[in-house]
Amino acid sequence: MSDLDVDVVVIGAGPVGENAAGRAHEQGLSAAIVEAGLVGGECSYYACIPSKALLRPVDLLAATHRIPGVEAGPIDVGKVLARRDQFANPDDSGQADWLSGAGVTLLRGHGRLAGERAVEVTHDDGTTTTVSARSVVVATGSVPTAPPVDGIDDVGAWTNRDATQVKDVPSSLLILGGGVVGVEMATAYVRLGAQVTLVQHGDRLIPATEAEAGRRVQAALEADGVDVRLGTSMTAVRRDGADVVATLDDGSEVRGAELLVAAGRRSTTDDLGLETVGLPPGRPLGADDTTTVLGDWLYAVGDASTGAKLTHMGKYQARICADVIVARAHGKELGGRYSHHAATAEHTAVPQVIFTDPQVAAVGHSEASARDSGLPVRAVSFEIGNTAGGSLQADGYDGFASIVVDTEREVIVGATFVGQDVADMVHGATIAIVGEVPLSRLWHAVPSFPTMSEVWLRLLETYGL
């Protein structure tokens, strides 16, 4: 016997799960969603939203310094944190009300599979609700991982949650990891007044991007006063009074009031009852391009699956997932957007913006990843500061744009923009890649003058069109 019968039950009420449940209900299916924490998930309270709220004020101040005649500052840290709280106040009643208004039943508690098409929800008071559903969607997100560093579990190390919800900026901060979280938080904290040391085991920052992007971000961080240690690992950490002291593999030591571990994330699939349906727990769920994991009833979206751990890609998957569930409920064939285009976006056109200063906005392949994939490519780049739009944007504008072209098909398969205020430039490149727009056609997409988008014309000219 079940306590609740619905067409769709979603485990996880972050933005990805909300999208899946809401879209399914909009198309006529009954939907429930299960959440053990805050409705709105990691992105809303501890990641994308609060981190950008911390970064925007300090980046705006830096931008004013690049325009003569504009004076601003100094930063009022208290007001920055107060504004952050307006965006990421851990009160999820508004998001819960949105679910209710959208017709989705919210069940607060921990959800686990209880066999095929069944989810058992354990509430905080120990009671349980069993949900029977035609379709089950896993949208449980991810959690930070910590490398095997001696003592790391004993020093009260921060994760992204601590860094984005801080009440007071520490005098100094050690950061372990030079990926997106590491470089963004280094940017925010050094400009909020902390002394920052960043330790990265690899030979460059943000290694998934073009190498030049990592070099320019490193140069900017060092100009701000960040001590960047590349090709270095922490072997041990300990508390020495109020400080954390980290021993590095070269025998040296660095210290800070706090240690932020920004060394990656893993899918949260440990305690989901996957074994009740013959699947191993603790691993990303291998969904196909329709987001299907098992039969025609179990689906996975967002960080719980094997795709890029990015909110916008998870929400994209959630829209596909809901549409697939609705199509199957109505006996329709799957095709069109559930096949080729889904595969294109998932595997070759994933956009991302890193909100450092300079910003890094990229989509699709880097030159290295394209060559590793066996594509015949040529990459060209152009300095954005050498366009009228770039020079007007900031004195001494430091940034570049690059495209990676498949020379057989003459289409773009990757693009990168680095510089102040380039975040929104990446969507045009995303459209060009997903639409497989030939360069000969792209030539007729005339950029407005004088904007930084003029760099598109310069890139095509550099390529030889």
Short key terms for the protein model shown above:
single chain, 465 residues, alpha/beta, FAD/NAD(P)-binding domain, Enolase-like, domain 1, 3 domains, eight-stranded mixed β-sheet, 15 helices, 32% helix, NAD(P)/FAD-dependent oxidoreductase, flavoprotein, FAD, Pyr_nucl-diS_OxRdtase_dimer, Class-I_Pyr_Nuc-Dis_Oxidored
Helix content: 25-40%
Give the CA-CA distance, first to last residue: 68 Å
**Count, helices:** 15
Mean pLDDT: 95
Q: What is the number of independent domains? A: 3
Looking at the structure, the CATH topology of the largest domain is: FAD/NAD(P)-binding domain
The CATH class designation of the largest domain is Alpha Beta
The CATH homologous superfamily of the largest domain is termed: FAD/NAD(P)-binding domain
* Low-pLDDT runs: none
Note the main sheet: 8 strands, mixed
- In total, the number of strands is 22
How does the helix and strand content classify structurally?
A: alpha/beta
Shape: globular
Rg, rounded, reads: 24 Å
Q: Based on the structure given, which CATH architecture of the largest domain is correct?
A: 3-Layer(bba) Sandwich
InterPro entries: Class-I_Pyr_Nuc-Dis_Oxidored, FAD/NAD-bd_sf, FAD/NAD-binding_dom, FAD/NAD-linked_Rdtase_dimer_sf, Pyr_nuc-diS_OxRdtase, Pyr_nucl-diS_OxRdtase_dimer
Family: Belongs to the class-I pyridine nucleotide-disulfide oxidoreductase family.
Protein name: NAD(P)/FAD-dependent oxidoreductase
Organism: Actinomycetospora endophytica
